Structure formats: C-alpha cells, structure tokens
Amino acid sequence: MKKCPKCEKIYDDSWKICLNCSNTMLVDAGEEPISTKKGEEPKKKVIKRKDVELTIGQYFLNRLGILSLVAGFAFFIAYSFQHIGSLGKLAVGFGVSALLLILGKLLEKKPGFQWYGFSLIAGGWSLGYFTTFAMHHIQSVCIIQNPHLALLALVLVTSLLMADLMRYKSQVVTTLIYLLAFFTAGIAKVTPFSLVYAALLTFSLIFVVYKMKWNRLMLVAIFSAYATHIFWLGPEILMSGTSHLKVSLEMSKFLLSAGFLTLYGILFGVSPLLVSCENEEDKEIQSWTTLLNAFFYSFLMFAEVSRINPEWKYFIALALGLFGILASYISKYGVKKDHLVISNMTLAIAFITISFPLKYADRWVDIAWLSEIPVLILLGLYFNRFIYRAFAWGLGFVMAVSSIGFYSVTHAPRNLTLFNGYAIAERSLIVSVAIFMFCAAQIIYLYFKKRFPLRQGENGIGRAFFVVATMLFLFLTGYDVHVHFMSITWAMVAFLFLVVGFSLNDKWFRYTALGLVGIIVWRIVFYDVRDLPSIYKIFLFIGLGLALLLASFVYGKIALVQDQTKETLQ
Predict the structure, then answer these.
(1) What string of H, E and C letters represents the secondary structure of 21-51?
(2) 105-157, pLDDT tens digit by residue?
(3) CA distance linking residue 99 with residue 9, whole number of Å
(4) How far is CA 22 from the centre of its chain?
(5) Which secondary-structure segment (H or E) carries 11?
(6) How far apart, in whole angstroms, are the C-alpha atoms of residue 236 and residue 230?
(7) H-helix or E-strand containing 3?
C-alpha cells in the first residue's frame, strides 16, 4: 500500500499520484517521509511492521466476508422460493449490488478505509454481473427470453465495469472483482449460454490487462478460470442429464466442457503476445503465463478426450505443438518478444514429441524422436537457445539406451514390412537411423561451432553422440550384416568418415576411420582370405585398395600443405 505524506491518504501500490493534493511523492504506508530541508540530517526510514493477527483480521477476513456475502446472494437468486418471485429476487440482487457500490465509493475516499471500500466495490460489481446473467440464464428468475437482449445486457454491464476499473486503476479491485465473478460462474447450471458469460468475463479481463499493462493479473486470471472449471463447471457438466445440443448426451457434455477449455486456452495463449513488457519481471510473468496455460489446458483436455475417444489425444497434442510453432514465429518476427519464443518453441517441441507415441507404434516413435535430435540442436544453435540443445541431449541419451537395448539377450529381433512385401529387421532400421542422426548431430556441432557460441564442455557432447554412433555401428554390423559384406561395409563407412573428417577438419572422424581400417585389415588377414568366396574377395580387395590409395593421397596433400606453411612462416 502507498500513502501520501501530505494528506495521509492511502492508495493501492499501482497509484503514482495523490488525487486529493496532487502530490507525486507517494511512500510506502509503513514508512516515514525523508526530510529534505537544509541543515537537517535525513531521517532514517522507520518501517512499521503490522502484527500478523491484525493483518489477518483486517484484510483476510474482509476478503472472505465479501466472498461469502456475494455467494450467499447469488444462491438466493439462483434457487426458488415460494413467496419471492423473479422480480423480487432480481430487485434484491441489483439493490444489494448498488448498495455495496455506494458504500464502497464512500469508504474508499476516507483515509485508512480505502482497502475496505475496494472490497465492497468488487463485491458490488461481481454481484451485479451475476444478477444480469441470471435474468436470462437461471430459470427461477428468467425474465428476458430473447438471448440477444440478454447478451446486450451483459455487454452493457461489462462495459460499465471496465470503465469503472479504468478510473480506479487498482489491481486489488480488479483482482477481487474477477475472482468473485469467476466464483459465481459456478453457482448456476451450465448451458451453452454459459460460454457467453465466461467469454465476456475472460475477454474483458484480458482487455484490462492489455490496457493497464498488468501482467501479474494474468496469473490470477488463469488460476481463477481453470479452478472454476475444475471445481464447478466440469463437475456440473458431467452430472447434467440434459443434452443442450443436437447430439448424444455424452458428446454434448464433451463439446460444452471442451468449449470452455478451448476458450480459456486461446485467450490466455494469445494474451502474452498482446500485452507489452516494461521490465524483466513482466517477461518472466508472461513466460509463466504461457507455460501454465498450456499445462492446464492440455491436462484437462486430455481428460475430456479420454472419455469420448482416446485416439483424439494425438490430434490435441499435435495441434498444441503447431500452435506453439505459430506463436513462436509471431513472437520472433511479429511482436519481437524473444522470451516468448523460448516458451512457445519449448512447448511446441514437447507436445510434438508427446504426440508420436499417442498415434504410432513404438518403432515409428523411436524414428521420430531420433529425427528430432539434430533438428533440436540446429534450432538451439541458430536461435542461441540452450534449452533446445539440452532437450536434444536428454532425448539422445534415452534413444542411445533404447538402441543399445535392441541387442540385449531378452530382446527378440522382429521383422518390419515396409512396402511391396519387402521386410527388414526392425532393429536394423532403427539402429541405422540412430547412427545417422547421432552423426548428423556431431556434424552440426562441427559446422556451426565457429558461427555460434557454445557453452563450456558442449563440444564433448557432440563427440559423445559420435562415440555412441560408432558403438551402434559395430553392434549393427556384428549382428545384422552378413559376414560376407562386413568388411566391405566397414570400408565404405571408413571412407565416408575420412571424407567428413577432412571436410570439417575433425580428427575424431579421421581417427575412427583409421581405427576401422585397422579392424578391416585384421579381419582380412584372419578371416576373409580364408573363408570368403572368390567373387567377394575380388570386390573387397579392389574396393579397399582404391579407398586406401585415395585416403593416402589426401593425407599426402595435407602433409605437403603443412610443410609449405612451415617454410613460409620460417
């Protein structure tokens, strides 16, 4: 809370000027102003700490009291009484609402009672909004039969509410009003018109956040909206025995509940893109808003979809991933918010990764996850986002363990039919993809390490990918390649490693190639010369000879260049 040192009027923390005396030097309510007269020493700030019991009695009991009062009158309006008609209950609702607003506006002008007035104002507006909603939506007090007229009444009350909020410019009042409004939303029975109630409420709150730049209020909105759905709207929809749409009862329940969740998910997902940031705290709040909205929406939506058709979870996860990519693109090139690029792209990667096991068999999930590893590393280097590269490392570790597990004793090899009846060993396909993707990860590191900054020890991660790829290659050729083709396969890969090693000037690829050459020579001497058929010997020796001669020629060129460089330097 803030206090004017001249007239001692109390204000909310969001105020910058005193309305009574136009003083712009507001201080914390518990601090004494600092003296600035000449010849006087500045007084030290004396912080008056309030007693915990006093704080609870003054503020928490006040909030609980107004919440209980509004809820009581909302129940009074919603339920039927024998001797009180619709007009009587509505008159009570609007009368109590007006009384709370009048008392609140009187008290907020009195020094020391502004906090009390704000609570009454919040209760008045929330009860007025609910009473307007009840005039069409709640059967016991329904006096407006035309839904368009009812919508117009709600829009009018919402407009007056926002205009009053703009005048006060208080986050405390705004937070209380919307907390109470979301709370009363769960009192009445849920119908498709309830979506209008929730939509106006949520949209008006986002408009206030956008206009006043109150990012912190978005966190309150997210918890309020989703908590209302979890504890009131969701259970009310599940217990409903009436289909409000021209579909089956179960589908009607699903569409109604999914409609609320999708409304919240879209509005809260878009709002961080629209509201401006003034400091690092705002950026952090917007990032948390994005992450929390995605968590609540996906968790609740997966639960709803599981009741109707579990296979739809794949499409939900994929749609969330694509939305994350679109939001990341808008954050980068539209609104220029790099902090949201990280949040949205992280969510996109997570949801797309989750979507694969929800739709496809295990082998295709492995291939999809392996394909993500070099893509994530490339994105992490290009956008300079460490979190993408760390995600790729974790995924790489999981897939390395999984790929090596294919060669355990307990894992029986299976064949996989691709097309036209052609079959291939499942582990051969997956391990081959793993080798290719792990090598691609190391190649990306080597190619971009001079262009983009790497963290300490990150070069070692790239080498670890390559070591795992080499181990998997030895497993693959030892278990799944015919003995007649083993040496030829090793020779081809050794030649390819030499080419990559020379092209990227990486000794690890070259050393591995030379090691493979040593293994090939050992195998030729002790096995191939004795056991291979003549035709295989011909191709093996000719191919190996050409590869070794070419490699020797390249090494000779490198040695010549190094000698010429030394002579030039001398």
Answers:
(1) CCCCCCEECCCCCCCCCCCCCCCCCCCCCCC
(2) 888 777 777 777 878 888 888 888 788 878 877 777 778 877 778 777 877 87
(3) 24
(4) 44
(5) strand 10-11
(6) 10
(7) strand 2-3
Two tokens, residue 484: 């007649």
First-to-last C-alpha distance (Å) of the chain:
76
The Cα–Cα gap between 61 and 333 comes to 48
Cβ contact 104:120 at 8 Å? yes
d(CA 385, CA 478): 38
Task: Tell me the two tokens of residue 461.
Answer: 């991660």
Please give the Cα distance from 562 to 398 (Å, whole number): 42
Cα(326)–Cα(346) distance, integer angstroms: 12
CA dihedral for 103, 109, 111, 114, sign (positive or negative): positive
Q: What is the pLDDT of residues 514-552, one digit of tens each?
A: 888 787 777 776 776 666 677 766 776 777 777 777 777
Say which residue, 567 or 471, is predicted with more confidence.
471
Q: Which two tokens stand for residue 29?
A: 């309510």
HSE (side-chain half, CA atoms, 13 Å) at 257: 29
Q: Give the whole-angstrom CA distance, residue 541 versus residue 532.
A: 12
Query: Nearest CA to 69 among 104, 113, 110?
Result: 104
Q: Which amino acid is at 562?
A: Q
Burial class (CB in 10 A: 0-12, 13-18, 19+), 542: exposed
Non-local (6+) Cβ contacts of 395 within 8 A are 353, 369, 372, 373, 376
pLDDT digits 0-9 by tens, 205-240:
778 777 778 788 888 888 878 887 887 777 777 777
CA–CA distance, 561 with 119 (Å, rounded to integer): 82
CA distance 242 to 280: 49
Sheet holding 27-28, edge to edge: 10-11, 2-3, 27-28
Helix/strand/coil (H, E, C) string of 395-450?
A: HHHHHHHHHHHCCCCCCCCCEEECCCCCEEEHHHHHHHHHHHHHHHHHHHHHHHCC
Distance between CA 4 and CA 26 in Å, rounded?
Answer: 5
What is d(CA 187, CA 259) in angstroms, rounded to the nearest whole number? 19
Euclidean distance between CA atoms 271 and 249, whole angstroms: 33
| Secondary structure letter of residue 6 according to DSSP | T
Cα separation, 457 vs 67, in Å, equals 55
Rounded Cα distance between 228 and 423, Å, is 54
* Helical axes 86-107 vs 61-78, angle rounded to 10°: 160
Q: Is the pLDDT of residue 48 over 50?
A: no
Look at the block and give the residue holding tokens 């949209």. 203
Q: Are 347 and 324 in contact (CB under 8 A)?
A: yes
Question: Could you tell me which of 269, 266, 273, 265 has the C-alpha nearest to residue 338?
Answer: 273
User: pTM of the full predicted structure?
Assistant: 0.59
